[in-house]
Structure formats: C-alpha cells, structure tokens
Amino acid sequence: MENNFTEIAKAAKQASLEIADLAAKIKNEALNNIANAFEAHKQEIFEANKVDLELAQTLVDEGKITKSTFNRLKLDENKMRDMIQGVRDIAALENPVGKTLLARELDEGLTLYKVSCPIGVLGIIFEARPDVISQISALAIKSSNAVILKGGKESKNTNTKIMEIINSALEKTGGFPKNVVQQVFSHDDVAQMLKCDEYINLIIPRGGNNLVKYIKENTNIPVLGHASGICHIFVDESADIDVASSVVVDAKTQYPSACNAVETLLIHKNFPKADELLASLQLSEIKLVSDPDRWDMEYGDKILSYKFVESVDEAIDHINSYGSGHTDSIITTNAHNAEKFMNKVDSAGVYFNASTRFADGFRYGFGAEVGISTNKTHARGPVGLEGLTIYKYKLIGSGHIVDDYVKGKKHFHHKDLI
Amino acid sequence: MENNFTEIAKAAKQASLEIADLAAKIKNEALNNIANAFEAHKQEIFEANKVDLELAQTLVDEGKITKSTFNRLKLDENKMRDMIQGVRDIAALENPVGKTLLARELDEGLTLYKVSCPIGVLGIIFEARPDVISQISALAIKSSNAVILKGGKESKNTNTKIMEIINSALEKTGGFPKNVVQQVFSHDDVAQMLKCDEYINLIIPRGGNNLVKYIKENTNIPVLGHASGICHIFVDESADIDVASSVVVDAKTQYPSACNAVETLLIHKNFPKADELLASLQLSEIKLVSDPDRWDMEYGDKILSYKFVESVDEAIDHINSYGSGHTDSIITTNAHNAEKFMNKVDSAGVYFNASTRFADGFRYGFGAEVGISTNKTHARGPVGLEGLTIYKYKLIGSGHIVDDYVKGKKHFHHKDLI
Q: Domains in chain B and their CATH numbers?
C-alpha cells in the first residue's frame, strides 16, 4: 500500500506537468490573488502566529529554543508587508520559462531551439521562518515548478494558515492546476522526501548549517544551498587603510549572523598599517581572535579570526583550504594581485575592494533570491529565478533522418539564428 | 592513516586549483602534444590492446563477456584515427572558461561580472571502451578540470598505456600542472570515489544502464548522464506516411543500440495509414511488439513496441509515464499538436518531424560531447564542454560597503554592460 507521502509526491509530479507550460498571465494572476488574499486575511495569520508564539514562549522559557528562533517565528506588520510585497514583486518579474536560449539551423529546414523550462518538483525543508512559505511558493509558481514544503513544527499553525490562504487563492484562479503547492508536516515526511528521487527533482533547504549538512548527506537528489559561510577578507601589502577598515567593519558588523559576513581576516605581513587596522576593528566592537583551531569557524557574531600571511599566494591557499566557497574579498591597490586572487580563489564570489555582504540576489539585481549556493554544478552564488529552471531542446524538421548525414547525402551547416 | 584513493583525490583537487586559470595556449599545446604522442606511440597502444583482447577472447569463449563488449574494447586503425582527431578537434574549440556571461554595474564604480570557470574534479567511471580515456581527458583539460578515471578491468593494459602516453605528453608541456589526469583501478576505488564528496564535484558514468543506475543510487555527488534511453515516436492522425515511415525506420535501425534509438511507437487510432506504416517497418526488418508489460523496454535492437492511442494527450501522458526523459518525437502536419507535444512532453529533446537519432552533441554543433543527460539540473540533453563549467561572480569596487545601501546613502542602479 502506498503511503501518504508518495501520494503527495505523485500529485506534485502531475501538477508540475500541468503548470509547465501555463500562460504567464495565469501565473501572475495567481500570484496577485495570493498577495490580495494575504492582505484580506492577515488578521487570521496573526492569530495563528499568536498560537505558535505562545507555545514557543514556553519553549524559550524552558530553554528548548533560542530567543532568535522565537524572533524568526514572529510575524509582525512589517514582515507581513514585506511578505505581501515580495509576492507582488515576483509577479512583476519577467517569465523565466519559455525563453529561447539558442536557435540554430542545423541544416536546411532543421532547426534546434534551446528553451528554458521548469525543473519539475521542488522539495523545500525550512526552519522557523513562516514567511519562507510565501516566498518559495511564489518563486515556484513563477518558474512553473510544483513544490512540497516542510516547515518547522514551531510554526505549524502559521504555516497551515498561510498555506490555506495560498491554496484558496489558487483555487480561485481560473485555469490554475491543483496540487502545485503542498505541505507536509512530520519528520518521517522529511526522510521520505530525501529518498523520493523518482518524483522530486531538487531539494532546497532553508535553515541552519546542521539542517543543510544533514540533508546533503542523506539524499541523492540535487540540493541547492550552502551549509556554511566562512568568508574571508585578505588585506594585501598595498591596501588602502581606510578601504580595508571600512570594508572589514561592514562585512563583520553590518549583519553578523548573515552567511556572507566575514569570519577570517588575512593580513599581509608587510601591510604597514596592520596595527591601525586591528585597532579600528576593536573600536567597532569586533573581538579579534588568532587561533589556528578556529580557521573554519563561522561565528555569526562580532568575533573575527585573523592571521598574518606571507603573500597573496598563502592567502589564496588558506581560503581554498579553510573557506566554504561562499564569498571572499581582497583589499589591495595592486591590480595584478587582485586578478590573481579572483582567478585562483575557488569561491562563488571573489571580490576586489568590496564588502562580502554584497553577496545577495537583490543586490546583484536578480529580483528575488532562491538562496545562496556553494555548489559547483547547476547554480552558484546568489540564485535567482533562473536557478529554478533548466532547458529542453526542441528540434523542428520536415522528415529529417540521421542516415542522410551519416551517408554524406546531407551536411550540417550549424548556423546560429540568434 | 590515509588510504591511497584519498591521496589521489587530494592531488586532483590541488591540480584542479592550478589548472583553473591556466592559459588557453598551454591547454591547447598540451592537447596537441597528446595527439602527437598517440600518433608516435600508436603501435605500443595496439600492443597493449592486443594483450587485453587475448584475455577478453578467453572470456568471450567462456561466455563471461559478450562479443559486443569485445568489439568495444578493440582499438583498430580507424578508432585510433578518430581518437587522435578527437583530441585535435577539442584543442581547436573555443576556450569554455573565462567567458563573461554577465557584466552589470550595480552602482557607480561597483561592477559585477559572472564568469565561466571549471567545476573542479571530475570522477569518470567507464566500461570497456578505452578511447573514453582520451576523449574525457581532453575535455577535462580543455575545460580546466582535473579528472580521475576508472576504466573497466577488461581494458586495463590499454588504459594504462594510453594514460602513460597522456601523462608523458603533459609532463613535456611547459607550465602544465601535475596530477590533472589520474587513473584508479579497483572496485574499491569506485566505492571510495562515490563517497568522496569532499574532493570530487561531478561523477560522469560512461557505460550501460546498470552501471549508471548503481552510481546514481550510491552517491550524493552530482551525476551527469542517463541510465536509460526509452525514446518514443508519436505518429499523429494527420501525419505524412512517408515522413512517419522514414523517420521511424531511421530512429530504429540506423543504430539500434544507441540510447537515442526509438523503443516505442505510439500511433493515433485515427491515423488512416497505420497498416501501411506497420507493414513498412516490418519490411525494414523491425520486429513489432504490442505488450503493455514492455512500455519501459529499451531493446537496443531492431525490436519496437507499439501502441494505438486515442489522442495527442494520451501520447503525452504515456511518454511522461513510461519514458526516460531522453528524446521523443511527434510526426504530424498539425502545428498546434506539435507545439502541445513539445511543451508538455517532459524530455530533454522534444522533436517535430525529425528522427530521435539527432540527439547528439556533434549533430547539435557542440563540437564534442561529454554525454547525454536526463538530469533536471545543471545540464540536460547532449552536453558539450559548457556542461563541464560553472561560473563565479567577480565583484569589483573601490571600498564599497553594504551599510551605505541599507541606510539609503547610496542606491543600486543595476545597469547591464553587455
């Protein structure tokens, strides 16, 4: 007998085939209906959230969850406004599917098109933030993917209410297929999702390092995301002290718990203003630590590891050894060293005289961010809607057969049309 | 204590960092050196191959390997010429890394570049064909990836000789890093490769369905390839009989064991010339089978499943249920049905009045083929050199910090430069 999760996954697969070529107009109408429904029913969402918060407060008091988890769980007017605006913004973006990426005449009357299309079924596993449902559902709809969401149990009431509103808005959207957005609840569902490579094409974890690591180690479905963000700044011999100081302070203190915050500062041993730099960081309330056991620490706080290095090469080696391939920056006035650093550091983002905190989909101008990937395949760095698409090849002929080419009766001429 | 495979994988990782930004000139020189060395030492390769063939002949006699495995193992003058030319052709291709894919001014003096770069370390697991070493090594070098190859034990002597020649040619290439191309031999090495997600970024299996299935099920490293090729042709109500007959004959008989050969023929129940079509297929020595237990059969032979369907929708559903997402074609004169078929069939290749046999990197004009992928992420369909690359983001500023944008002192203007 089939269990419940398999049924949900099959329904998602079917939905993914139906939404694959749905008109952009219907998708955008669906998104605007969702935004309007959030607007109309926001009191209900706040009430559901209140139930979760009361329960969570008990857990905070008992020391079972942290205050910061509690804060992420909380939906206030500001977060609600951002959530609603986020859906409208996604509706306003260009349709990421159906784009012609290549058009090539292989021979007279035989034309190849590479066209962007959805991936299929996304599995989303996220922790306390209930606004993730709204964001990821909107991104999935816009990119014509079906999605199965598994949220944290702390936000179950809020998630259920948001999902109810989304699905009721989708039902009211003429021509919109069923089961595009589904939710599961149990820990057992997660285990099944990770095994369900028959129906699920991509897993996106949204949460802490441990969650992401667990998922990456326990599935052979592709996973889009990053486990850790151990970002570096290398201050070269020739760096401008003001640039070095202001970039490091920004990268460490502007939002210390972000994955793109700097964790380790590497300083060229001949940088003449090293003392001044370290003093300025301490003035900005950054705690400095120089401990070789901490080269792979992600503090998430105003703490910074630092190390003196012999050369740009040692800095590059250090980053490639201890970094997480997220974002690393060089501060220098030497363009040759900057070029070397950017070419040799094997990270999603390699920066020159800029703060690591710029690693973000909105800042890159992608409109909406699916997440930040440290993968080496499919999508790397801040991932926009494009990361939720793949492509298919359409070949249009008039009875063309391969035998004619093998026998030399016909020849490919491979003429690009765009 | 570290075992041998981990040492090899670490060396590959180090090599991948060194080859990442190697000048195209050196890479091409290395490739031409390899081609010249094959030319100069081909007798040695034939001799090594002879040893493998003698051993293999015994296995054929004992019924332990098939005659077709024996044939794939055999390197003759023709295959050798193709192998050498293949390396020269790859040298002549455009450098796939270092391409600027996006250049965007985020704000005054703050510019983002998305630049293609290598993936890192490739793990290749292949069966009897020793020419795979040459092809994959050349593709890896051209795309600046390091590679670890594990061939079948039947071709061990040939593989070892080819590898010796490759590495000796690489050693003679000034500035070319060590350990870019390495080989492992044992079954245990395969098990370790599949677990080695710390150092290996992409696995490419080249072999039969069972090998690929085994690999996909036993690793959480991304795998590029396809387990099976269950391709379909749907002959619509309005199809031209001559087009239908010649395309199906080509797709089934031109090379029956290819993954892009057709396995199931779907015929619209109202197609008036169905009998004529089936008769013409039988005339071409195609054995026709209509058995619902065989809708997922990959015959690899001149055998074809067939089924009558009620509509284009039933054909689409059948393909999405039983197909392998490889390549499927509609034969019709109805453009509306063709469009529907190409949009709704969830396969890497969706064709209109053309043989499924066109699904091939060379025919698409990609120059060289890494393999054909039925994945839904990274690369789909025939994969060229581009499939061995990913990208990194370079951000160049002059001391830019995020705080200025968060506080509204500065604003992004996101101006595309290319």
A: 4-224+384-391 (3.40.605.10), 231-363 (3.40.309.10)
Q: Is the dihedral of CA B294, B298, B301, B302 positive or negative?
A: positive
Which residues are within 8 A (CB) of A118 and not within 5 positions of it... i.e. 6 or more apart?
Answer: A16, A19, A20, A97, A143, A144, A145, A388, A389, A390
**Residue among B400, B414, B416, B418 with most chain A CBs within 10 A, to mutate:** B400
Contacts of B351 in chain A (CB under 8 A): 394-397
Q: Which residues of A touch B359 (CB under 8 A)?
A: 393
**CB–CB of B243 and A399 under 8 A?**
yes
Q: What is the pLDDT of residue B50?
A: 97
Size of interface A-B (CB pairs under 8 A): 232
Listed as ranges, residues in chain A with pLDDT below 50 are 1
E runs forming strands in B119-180: 121-126, 146-150
For the segment B166-176, what is each residue's pLDDT rounded down to a tens digit?
999 999 999 99
- For the cut 90, the answer to whether the pLDDT of residue B407 exceeds it is yes
Neighbours of B119 (CB within 10 A): 26
Top residue of A393, A405, A411 to mutate, by most chain B CBs within 10 Å, is A393
Predicted pLDDT of residue B68: 83
Q: Where are the alpha helices (DSSP H) in A111-239?
A: 131-142, 156-171, 187-195, 209-217
Q: Is the dihedral of CA B295, B299, B300, B301 positive or negative?
A: negative
Contacts of A375 in chain B (CB under 8 A): 222, 390
- For the sheet containing B231-235, what is the strand order? A415-416, A100-107, A110-118, A389-400, B349-354, B327-331, B231-235, B262-268, B303-309, B287-289
Give the tokens for residue A84: 């609603």
Residue B298 CB neighbours (<10 A): 18
Report the SS3 class of residue A289.
Answer: strand
Q: How many alpha carbons lie under 13 Å from residue B8 in its C-beta half-sphere?
A: 19
| Contact state of A402 with B355 under an 8 Å Cβ cutoff | yes
Question: E-strand spans in B9-167?
Answer: 100-107, 110-118, 121-126, 146-150
**Among all residues of chain A, which has the CA nearest to that of B245?**
A399
Give pLDDT tens digits for B216-252: 999 999 999 888 899 999 999 999 999 999 999 999 9
A378 is written with which tokens?
């499919």
- pLDDT for res A1: 41
Contacts of B145 (CB under 8 A, 6+ apart): B16, B19, B118, B119, B120, B121, B122, B388
pLDDT in tens, A216-244: 999 999 999 888 899 999 999 999 999 99
Placement of tokens 């930004």 in the chain: B21
Q: Which of A222, A338, A354 sits opposite B110 (nearest CB)?
A: A354
pLDDT at B2 over 90: no
Alpha-carbon span A350 to A341, nearest angstrom: 8
A244-256 residue pLDDT tens? 999 999 999 999 9
Q: Which residue has the tokens 């090899």?
A: B8
Signed CA dihedral, A366, A371, A374, A379: sign only: negative
Distance, CA of A162 to chain centre: 21
Rounded Cα gap, residues A391 and A100, in angstroms: 9
| CB nearest to B348's CB, from A219, A355, A392 | A392
pLDDT at B69 over 90: no
Q: Is pTM beyond 0.90 here?
A: yes
Question: Do B376 and A390 make contact, defined as CB atoms within 8 angstroms?
Answer: yes
**Closest chain A CA to residue B389:** A377
Q: What is the CA radius of gyration of chain A?
A: 25
CA B350: distance to chain centroid? 18
Please report the pLDDT score of residue A324 as a whole number: 96
